Amino acid sequence: MATQASFIGQKNKKDQVYTDPWNMMYEAERTPSFFTGSEVIKEAVRRASCDMMVAYPITPQSEAAALCGELFAEGYIGDYFRGESEFAVMSQCAGAAFGGARVFTTTAGPGTMRAMENFPMWAGARLPIQMIVTCRGINSPLSIQPDTLEISYLMQTGMLVWHAETAQDFYDWILMGYMVSEEPDVHLPLALCCDGFFVTHTKDMVDLTPVDMCLPPYDPYRSPVPCMDMECPPVRMMRDPFVMKSNYISYATHASWQQEVWAAVERSRKHTIRWMNGLIDTENADADVLVVASGTAVSQSREAIAILEDEGITVGLVKVKTLRPWPGEEIKEATKHAKHIIVPEFNVTGWLAREVRSTIPNNERVHAGPHVCGGMTMPPEIIASEIKTLMGMKTETLSARGS
Amino acid sequence: MSKERIKIAEELFDIMPVEYQDLVKRATYGNETRGWKDIGNAKELIEEHSLCAGCPESMAFRYILASLPNPEDTVMVGSTGCTSLVFPHVAVHNIHSLFGNQNAIASGLKRALSVRFPDRTKDVVVLAGDGATVDIGLDMTLQAWFRQEKFTTICFDNELYANTGGQESGLMQKGFVAKMAPVGKSFEKVRLPEIARESGCHYVVNCTVSKPNLVEKVIKNAIHVAREIGPTYLQLYTPCILEIGKNSMEGLQEMRDSEKPSERFAYKEFVSEPAKELLTEMAAKEKERKAEAKRQLAAKTVSV
Ligand SMILES: Cc1ncc(C[n+]2csc(CCOP(=O)(O)OP(=O)(O)O)c2C)c(N)n1
Ligand code: SF4
Ligand SMILES: [Mg+2]
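YS: structure for the whole thing
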């Protein structure tokens, strides 16, 4: 089988040139374009040399999934079809990945939850599938509005979990995501999350890489586990399946494999840091007050910080880009001097604040909130007012604002 | 994969596991006429199994693996259940992922292999229990058929959930008293062969595994039809002797009793028109091949 390097410089059937990924992402000229998040997903996938996509409608990812169907019709994806449910879709993705394909899919909210049994299986089977999650509410009564609660479930599956703030993040991270998750010492699925609607359905300027360049194809023989295509000799995997045994060897095997999956998550750090210039971004990290946030909450926090800046209050910002691997050391370092750490979130439980609290010393500094959920927006003013309250300053209450 | 692929460098031959040496020396990879008669004469693709002693599933496995027309390019997909205890011993690539999702896995797999190897034949064969096929996985079973996915689905019908200790399944007979059916199952055995026909399967057979030559025939037909035309379904009775209170030696008789003309596993077959054409063509070729072999043998005998 030809290696990935041997493809570079050659053309695919759409006349795109398989390009060294680093050149493509960091050296090739970018074209500013005004696109919705969904269109940005399509443009990234156009350049990702995907062998297979399986789709299923659920707001707010339906448009992106359908746009990728157009890519298939144009010949940019090897195969594409609509599965019958998210559970089935994620198993279809698994089947394709077991067979050595580069696989892409998208889901959201109840779809993520419906498919959940697949995700630890993907990680355990070391399938580097990429799944876009455009987060939405999962509670009853039915809601299609943005809400990031589903991410907290994905964080325990053994998948890589990244949280994009902007359409630009999305574009770059889809392409970089394959490069990280297909590394032989990683080889894990990636859940690339964003806040639904805010990112998918708004238009933004995004700098695109050249349309005639694409990633080199996936090489399934750079995998830590054999590809199920009968191209390498089949081995009898074990004399007795471990599931049958209640003995130490069986437990040790399962335990060490789980540890290996999480070790692979950790090993993705070095690749991710290289590609994404760190697992977090910081601004004014030496300020007394810091906001730590991920996804759309970062954008809202930026606005809040600007409001406070106008009033002469300096607040720093930590943008958390990857949730798995968890940038614990980075956050510890960045929050070293902070007296107050504010964690605004688009969900009711405050999972990000919980993660931050479990990471840093003197964690009474962490203030969980403000929280909005069920599709509510997070006006920068409420973040600003929360910060002022924490600093012992007087602020207008929300009801006062309204009256 | 060609047989060349499994060859071992001469210098390393003796340090390879005996089973592997055996696979290289005596496997029937690449032999177009392979079949159940090789059992005992050639290296089998299954060595041991961890099923109950005398479980008819073990016979079924041996017959099926001996009959695969193209094992060197066949990938099998299993599901959780007694079969999943056997697959780790099987010398073709096989996938276990979850309980009930086998036809979804196979759909993705078959398509991926078609994208990656457009000019080669890669067969995909699903083998799962009745609980996996008819209960928890029914939507994926049917949807793969609706979509005309080109692989074979085999159901080992033992009429209950064996691996979890003998609970009611959709393919259990009405009235049977089992765990979770404490006063007897209240509804009829699901008519999956008929449903398979209506769902778009091109070749459907319902039978037992009492006769190896019959198993060989239906496996070969099902795989060839799936390869060329569309989905195929085999429902094979592999009684769970443990849960129906039979001894190790009684599995075969149980199957013979259940395949009598008035019984639920009397041979039943459905073949679509395109599948009929294909099978007729194949039978003609096979006849020609046999005649040719006979002629050559005769020629040899004369020249001696
Ligand atoms: C999601 C899920 N639900 C339930 C189970 C438990 N389970 C394992 S095997 C099995 C029964 C299998 O029955 P069948 O498919 O008929 O196969 P058999 O063991 O009879 O060969 C069940 C219920 C599981 N592993 N996963
Ligand atoms: S429990 Fe039943 S089906 Fe499973 S191995 Fe034993 S006899 Fe066979
Ligand atoms: Mg069963």
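YS: worth flagging: Residues 248-276 of chain A form the longest helix (29 residues).
IM: good catch. Also Chain A touches chain B through 45 residues (CB under 8 Å).
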